[in-house]
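so my prof wants the structure for this chain in the tokens format not the other one, which i didnt know existed until like an hour ago. anyway here's the sequence
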Amino acid sequence: MKKIKPFSILLPGVLLLGSCANLPFIGAEDIPVQAAIDSNKPFSNDDYSQLLTEYVTDDGWVNYEGLQKNRGALDRYYAQLAAVTPDTYKGWDENQQLAYLMNAYNALTLLAIIEQEPLKASIRDIPGVWSSKKFQLAGESKTLNNIEHDIIRPTFNEPRIHAALVCAAKSCPPLRNEPFTAENVDAQLEDQTKRWLARPDSGFRIDRQENKVYLSKIFDWYGDDWKPDFAVKDQFGGDDKQKAVLNFISNYVSEEDKAYLKAGNYQVSYLGYDWSLNKQ
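here's what i got, hopefully its the right format
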């Protein structure tokens, strides 16, 4: 992982009272902080860890109904994400920052889903879920798109984040049922990538009978993110973006499959994307 430029969060007027209330001013599209926490205590993933253990299976499926009925841990975690000050964030190293941001994206996606009553069949049924609904994050109001596309992607040269950010759809990578942590984030991203690519219907598949290689649609949407470190000219099939993606993927397959991918004598296609909820 290589950080390419610093991320600075400006403080727009969030008032931390230092005791049991920190409810910043919010607008019509903002998702309010609903839990009171003691902002004097250091940031912790404990509430997020608890809810992931209780409501997310080992292979990433979510019990949204149960989480909606018992949302206290998620509400407290959102309050903790909001209570992080810009100075605290800037004082963290890049692993701490990346873990915080990825956990925030996934937790706030869960929050966006359970805010709906009744639950929607797909996150795409929630108007403005990525572009309009704003969450309080380290002193600013941020949409999910802001977190992913304006902060994480341009700040960290780390394409494996696409295996870790989960948009609540069946064809997303699996939601990890433990928080990302600064100490383990590199190993966790490696594990997430392996889990994602092992899903033949939504991650990656070789069909030698058809002589085709199938990629997640995510590699189509964000394939350029792999070019800086994985671009290659003389090996692998497809266009330049697909060659870079396949060069990356070749590090996670058998030697036999790696040789097949490098030879490049196949057609590259993208898998369909199932947007229905990744629910249990």
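also thought this was worth mentioning. The radius of gyration is 20 Å.
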